[in-house]
Design a protein that fits this description.
about 20% strand; Rossmann fold
Length: about 190
């Protein structure tokens, strides 16, 4: 029996509404159009006050712990961050500092970012890929970068970016299928639990 994949998106945006969160939702929808999945969106803006003061994972609230567990138990990750001073936001990194270093091994990760201009487009390859390489995750080959001008009322409108997102998901499908095949069946999960 095939169970839906657990696809978790993490948006590093600290404001609401957030272009990063809307891009994450767009990518979640594209994946859901291709494979049965359970979707979850984690927004840093929603948990920032609960996350900011913690130094150790044991200091985190149950709410943040549940979000960390969702990332660690996901079959596929989508990560989207706004560019802030040439990199991902500090709270985005702080959140991933609490993820167990072995939890993302071989997990497919679709990388995306939003920024004010084209000059930050390399953030995906220069900042996000190294972070997820540390975790030994399988960063997917095509990242998505969108600028402020690609959105109208927080909806993605630029056809080139929309097509790149579609292409990124299409190219990700073989790795997503591998993740689905590697996932234990519900019966195996119950036995392990």
């Amino acid at each position: 029996m095939t169970h839906p994949l657990r696809v978790v998106a993490v948006s590093g945006g600290l404001q609401r509404p957030s272009k990063s969160a809307f891009l994450a939702e767009h990518l979640l929808d594209l994946i859901a159009d291709e494979v049965p999945c359970q979707q979850r969106l984690i927004e840093m803006g929603g948990i920032a006050p609960l996350l900011a003061g913690a130094v150790w994972r044991s200091q985190l609230s149950d709410t943040v712990e549940q979000e960390l567990a969702a990332v660690e138990q996901a079959d596929v990750l989508v990560v989207v961050t706004p560019v802030f001073r040439g990199s991902y936001t500090g709270l985005f990194k702080h959140f991933f500092d609490f993820i167990h270093q072995d939890a993302l091994i071989d997990k497919p990760v679709l990388l995306a970012a939003t920024g004010g201009s084209e000059r930050h487009a390399l953030v995906i390859d220069h900042q996000l890929r190294p972070l997820f390489s540390f975790f030994q995750a399988r960063t997917l080959p095509l990242g998505i970068y969108a600028t402020d001008k690609d959105f109208v009322d927080y909806c993605l409108q630029d056809e080139a970016v929309i097509e790149r997102a579609r292409l990124a998901v299409q190219r990700a499908l073989p790795l997503v299928e591998l993740a689905r095949q590697a996932r234990p069946s519900l019966a195996e999960e119950v036995v392990v639990a």
